[in-house]
Amino acid sequence: MLLAATTARTQQVAGLSTLTALPKKILTRVVGKLKVDEEYSAHVNLDLEKKYDVPLHQIFSRTGHIDKRLAGDAMVMPCYKENLPFLGATSGQMEASRLSNGVTTVSVDNSSPVVHLGVYLGVGTGNETRANAGSLQVMKNAWLGSTTRRTLIGGHREPLQCGANIEFNVGRDITSITASCPRDKASLVLDHMTQNLVCPEFFNHELHQAKVDALHQTGVALSDPATIVMEEANRLAYRGTGLGRSIYLKAGNTGAIERNTLLDFAAENFKDSNNIAVVGVGLDPENLSGLADEYLWSLEGGSATVANTTWTGMQESQIEASGNGALAMCLVEGAAAGSQDALVLGILKHLAGAGGSAITHGGSHSQLISAAAPYTQSPFNTQCVNINNVNTGMFGLSISAAGQEIGDVLKSSYGVMIGLNDGVSDQALETAKNKLKLELLSAYESNLAVRAATGLESIAAGSPSSASQLCGAIDSITNEEVIEAAKKINSSAPILVSYGNVESMPLQRELQ
What we know:
The chain is of the alpha+beta class and 512 residues long. 41% of the residues lie in helices and 17% in strands. It is built from 19 helices and 15 strands. It has helices at residues 2-15, 24-31, 46-51, 56-59, 65-68, 135-142, 152-161, 186-198, 204-221, 225-237, 259-269, 285-296, 340-352, 367-372, 406-419, 426-444, 447-460, 467-475, 479-490; strands at 61-63, 74-76, 93-98, 104-109, 114-121, 167-170, 175-182, 276-281, 315-320, 325-333, 357-358, 363-364, 381-388, 393-402, 495-500. Strand 11 and strand 12 form a beta hairpin. Helix 6 crosses helix 9, helix 13 packs across helix 16 (426-444) and helix 13 crosses helix 19. It is globular, with a radius of gyration of 29 Å.
């Protein structure tokens, strides 16, 4: 009996494959409202599905690195060839304006209960001199100290009572004072952020602890090999002056920094209202402009000096350190933030490789990773970097590998960059554009990233660009522009910096 029941059940299941052979009552119970003579309509676009109908043995194929220039036994997967459009505003409506004294205000009103404020100054360590080097780092730790309007206790206590944490970040050509707070506390917090621009004091008895903190921060930062390499790269690129000056306070300079030094620096560099941008993510334009005018009306334009941005090039440096690993950076002059050239170099960065991405079966390797893989047995990384400053930039290779292999990784990566002179296929160019747009849109998903990007562009270009404008500019870039940019960077005078086990590092002339 059991065998007979099983056989009958099997026949019933098999019969479901031909629905039209079932009685109408059973058919209605199985598939709902579908009629016997009704044709089934697909819930997907079958024409679109056929467009990407590729046999599995073609989708996942094992190919040697010699004929495909990929790492040995890498998994190859065809890329999505369509354009990636920008479909919407990611962070609210952006509106920029300029006050009567020249201060730029940028509002991104996203109706958030939390406001992200930023005051950006076109001043950095590049504006320091040998006599006052490290002044900004000391100011960073004394920014909420006594002013002509508040005491040291009030300067620290009032922002904390609002739940705000004011941060002072020093760069080589831009300084930012940022904070996040509830919307109804924006006025009080912005007042604290800007007081030392208008009425600084910097009493000597408050600077003792500020110097100690600045030296501690220097020690922590310079314990990171990547920071050491970047410091040396800037020193070589700009001959140690202007943008080449160290971003950190050195112990030998602490004695020269006292109240009058900081007041003179502030009077010379903080009074140029044309070089200041106030950004408010979460504030409406009228409110933000009113607050900026209330606190910065006394500033005037035309007093700040421009940091030296002359590219040196043809320099190299090797820093010996313990351990088997090594870091290297080979850089040429890049493009300024907010420029069309910066977007073109961003595409070049993704064409060469800005880091690998994982997929389910194997890895989707960049050209740089694929070119270097046959020459390595140890873990390594090589990627293209595009650093954009206010008036200039740095573009090139950042490499980490075992000391005995870093020379081969550097040479193979350098060859990939030279190969970009010949241009790329339309498919590769479209893929690089999509990657750059996704990188940009992912950054604009964050309110803090919107604030940082908007502040930098306001200082560098005079006015910020929205995400849709940047995506449109990326779409307009042609293969000819990419080839021209590749030839320009490959003919530029490079700098070469290495750190760690540098015994196998090639000389700069050996890369040509």
